[in-house]
Input
Amino acid sequence: GQNIDQPTEMTATEGAIVQINCTYQTSGFNGLFWYQQHAGEAPTFLSYNVLDGLEEKGRFSSFLSRSKGYSYLLLKELQMKDSASYLCATMDSNYQLIWGAGTKLIIKP
Amino acid sequence: DVKVTQSSRYLVKRTGEKVFLECVQDMDHENMFWYRQDPGLGLRLIYFSYDVKMKEKGDIPEGYSVSREKKERFSLILESASTNQTSMYLCASSLRIEVTEAFFGQGTRLTVV
Output
């Protein structure tokens, strides 16, 4: 079957670093996505990984290990505006997105 | 900037009503999608369309239908609304099926009473 697991909620401190993990089992693999969704708003694209390794984009980085079915999103120098839900999704062999339930990140001053 | 616009942010409908949710994108994208989002669950695909007048069922199509008469517009129809269809509905579009990034509308929170 197809399954994506990520923690339900995480708490971190402003200025710190947080890592949000995502593990997956899907039928075929055409990449893994991270989206950010602020409360009451639309999800917005953060990153896409299709090859193993780390992709860095400013304060955000995303890592993928295909052999382990594992990804993480790393957020550095946390700001209050980073309080949001972070959605992990994989694209299967039919190019359909399979979504995790999302991780709610709470940033404390 | 790509813009995906959903016709309503909030809707309240009665059980048994026929409900139309409209979505328009302005970037000539081929693919359009309807998802519902419920607490504790990931986004679940209801229907998608990869071309005008084409539609494909997603994971949870029961109780829904769709229409895509023009490339920019994708409508979700609840034939006879039920309370278990109370949810957040998200429309999305992407350029082509194998192209990665999907752009989402702001969502419609539908309450069926």
Observations:
- The two ends of chain A are 41 Å apart (CA to CA).
- The first strand of chain A starts at residue 3 and ends at 5.
- The CA atoms of residues 83 and 106 of chain A lie 5 Å apart.
- The mean pLDDT of chain A is 94.
